[in-house]
Amino acid sequence: MSDKLFSTRDEPLASEDLAVCRRVHEALCNRLDIDRSSEEAHRLGALIIELYRQGVHDETQLCLLAGGKQG
Fold first, then answer.
1. Are 53 and 17 in contact (CB under 8 A)?
2. Which residues of the chain have pLDDT under 70?
3. What is the tens place of the pLDDT at every residue in 30-40?
4. What's the burial of 71, exposed, middle or buried (CB within 10 Å: 0-12/13-18/19+)?
5. Strand, helix or coil at 25?
6. How far is CA 2 from CA 10, 13, 55, in A?
């Protein structure tokens, strides 16, 4: 039996982690003209956090994988 009850995906994000996700979210909302209070923005935020929890910590890669274009 494993000594670890939770995977790293279950651990809370640190403030530095949240700052990365916030920057990516703001950049994508601006680039894709998404209102930050919309349901679409909430789904985008959830996707960014999920990608981050899966190990994608580079902001450029997060933007690309979450649906943004490079540039």
1. no
2. 1-10, 68-71
3. 999 999 999 99
4. exposed
5. helix
6. 15, 23, 21
